[in-house]
Specification:
With 354 residues, the protein is α/β, with parallel strands linked by helices. The two termini are 35 Å apart. The chain has 15 helices and ten strands. Helix 6 links the parallel strand 6 and strand 7. The strands form two sheets. The chain has a five-stranded mixed sheet. A five-stranded mixed sheet has the order 7-6-8-5-9, sandwiched between helices.
């Protein structure tokens, strides 16, 4: 496996360059004070991500590029994995790994067998949007109109699929009527929508903002908005978190604290970053040359990021409720408390006044 293995995306740029382009506005900015090289003896850490261009990973990538991890004494590699199943195999093989992924992943049997736990919440919503094709579904009025249609998601076993299925249940329809199609990557998702391979798409930004602004889709369910998330799920449905094996948490609590502290600082930075911070050097990005488009993508996700990294009981219950509706045979109810800890986020909150 290679760090940010090249994958073609629109404009002929690979995933690493896309992610760096999104983050270029942060380059050269000074780090916040405090904590520099406090843990210089920490081992090298690999942060695993799926679909690195997704803005769901922005707090993690910012922590690396702004030097916040370095200030904590961390040596970090960011490794882009092709799928969640590959990521779980990587973690199972052993090593110092932390995974940037939806909290929802912890309910999967493979994650349960690895005893993964959330160290902090980076996304306070699912950070997704459901868009329908303006070509094939221009007359969309309700979720039941998607029955029999092809719904694109990055992976079949994903929070995106479950959000769409749950929205269908709430509308009085049946998830079994949906034909989900795994697309695998941002570039494939864009191409599939524009080529008519799918009738709808549920994905994160910048993909959904790009497609909406180019009049390819109409957004019909916004899982990025805190207000819409509360309304749809009757609670603050959690999005991305930092997931780690419990064995690592027990053996390397100092390392876990350093990672959480670095990301907490990037969450704080995002809250006050202005357009000039975000747009610096954007002219070098062949994917998002339109500065207004880039700002729209960031603005559409800005409120989806966690304010303090803390996981609330209401969020846990909302996530559990979704799973119980879609998978009534689930046995997670008795184990849910063991899936997260706020210990590290609370320390970071106090230290950085997040």
């Amino acid at each position: 496996m290679k760090k940010f293995a090249a994958l073609s995306v629109p404009g002929g740029i690979n995933r690493r360059h896309w992610s760096l382009g999104l983050l270029a506005g942060a380059l050269g900015l000074g780090a916040l004070a405090g904590g520099a090289n406090a843990n210089a003896d920490l081992p090298k850490l690999t942060l695993l991500v799926n679909d690195s261009p997704a803005l769901t990973h922005l707090p993690v990538l910012l922590a690396e590029h702004l030097g916040f991890f370095k200030d904590e004494g961390l040596r970090v590699d960011i490794l882009d994995q092709s799928s969640s199943s590959v990521t779980l195999e990587t973690i199972a093989a052993g090593g110092v790994y932390i995974w940037s992924a939806p909290y929802d992943q912890l309910f999967n049997p493979s994650s349960k067998s690895l005893a993964l736990v959330s160290l902090m919440q980076t996304g306070r919503t699912p950070q997704l949007a459901l868009g329908v094709s303006r070509k094939s579904m221009g007359n969309f009025k309700r979720m039941q109109d998607l029955a029999g249609k092809r719904i694109g998601v990055m992976e079949l076993d994903s929070q995106a699929r479950r959000c769409v299925d749950y929205a269908m249940v709430l509308a009085g329809g049946s998830p079994s009527s949906l034909n989900h199609v795994a697309l695998g990557s941002a570039s494939s998702a864009i191409a599939a929508m524009r080529n008519g391979m799918v009738d709808a798409l549920c994905a994160p930004d910048p993909v959904m903002t790009l497609l909406e602004k180019k009049d390819d889709v109409d957004i019909v369910r916004n899982f990025r908005s805190a207000k819409d998330t509360q309304r749809l799920f009757a609670g603050p449905m959690p999005g991305n978190c930092l997931l780690a094996p419990q064995a690592l948490v027990k053996k390397q609590p100092q390392l876990c604290q350093a990672v959480v502290s670095g990301v907490a600082r990037s969450l704080k930075w995002l809250r006050t970053a202005g357009p000039s911070d975000l747009l610096s050097h954007m002219q070098d990005n062949p994917v998002l040359l339109d500065r207004a488009l880039y700002l729209s993508a960031v603005d559409n996700t800005r409120e989806s990021y966690s304010m303090d990294g803390l996981m609330s009981n209401d969020a846990i219950q909302a996530a559990l409720r979704l799973r119980n509706v879609l998978e009534p045979q689930s046995d997670w109810r008795k184990d849910v408390v063991a899936t997260y800890t706020n210990e590290f986020a609370l320390k970071a909150q106090k230290r950085f006044k997040v």
